[in-house]
Amino acid sequence: MSRRAGCTAEEAGGREVCAVHEVLRKVSGKWTLGVLSETVRGPVRFAQLERSMSGISRRILTLTLRDLQENGLVTRTAYPTVPPKVEYSATDEARELYALLTGLTAWAARHSATVPGDAHDRRDDVRGSTD
């Protein structure tokens, strides 16, 4: 995830757009929504997350969980047992956000015919591709 400072009103076209931009920045990491999806279902241990997310490295999973914790979307609960037991859970804010994001998914599916499908194609359209 980018560590860039928040957007300005001039840059993002207004306060509401800036707020949305900031939320999307927080959940736009490659693995973030997958981790969020797993934690919304209930408390999950690190090894369970690692197994459920094929292709993620331990380091990236750790960083993603830390980012989600810092953003107030995931809580980490450590139990004083041997071996140590740690569980990750989505916060109420994360559950609310996830519900909204799944609504966005439904919207995208309904409008897939009118929304350009490939970011590369959109960039070419904006730039006036010569291909």
Task: Write up what this structure looks like.
The protein is 56% helix and 11% strand. The protein has helices spanning 9-12, 15-26, 32-40, 46-52, 58-70, 92-110, 119-127; strands at residues 44-45, 74-79, 85-90. A three-stranded antiparallel β-sheet has the order 1-3-2. A hairpin with a 5-residue loop joins strand 2 and strand 3. The longest helix is centred in the C-terminal third of the chain and has 19 residues, at 92-110. The radius of gyration is 18 Å and the shape is globular. The two termini are 32 Å apart. The model is unreliable at 122-127 (pLDDT under 50).
Secondary-structure map:
Elements (H helix, E strand, L loop, with lengths): L8 H4 L2 H12 L5 H9 L3 E2 H7 L5 H13 L3 E6 L5 E6 L1 H19 L8 H9 L4
Antiparallel strand pairs: 1-3, 2-3
> What is the total tally of β strands?
3
Main pleated-sheet profile: 3 strands, antiparallel
Total count of helical runs of at least 4 residues: 7
**Outline:** globular
Beginning-to-end CA distance, first to last residue: 32 Å
User: Helix share of residues?
Assistant: 55-70%
Poorly predicted runs are 122-127
Q: How much of the residues is beta strand, in percent?
A: 5-15%
Alpha-beta classification: mainly alpha
Computed over alpha carbons, the radius of gyration is 18 Å
Summary tags:
single chain; mainly alpha; 3-stranded antiparallel beta sheet
Task: Offer a concise description of the structure.
Helices cover 56% and strands 11% of the residues.
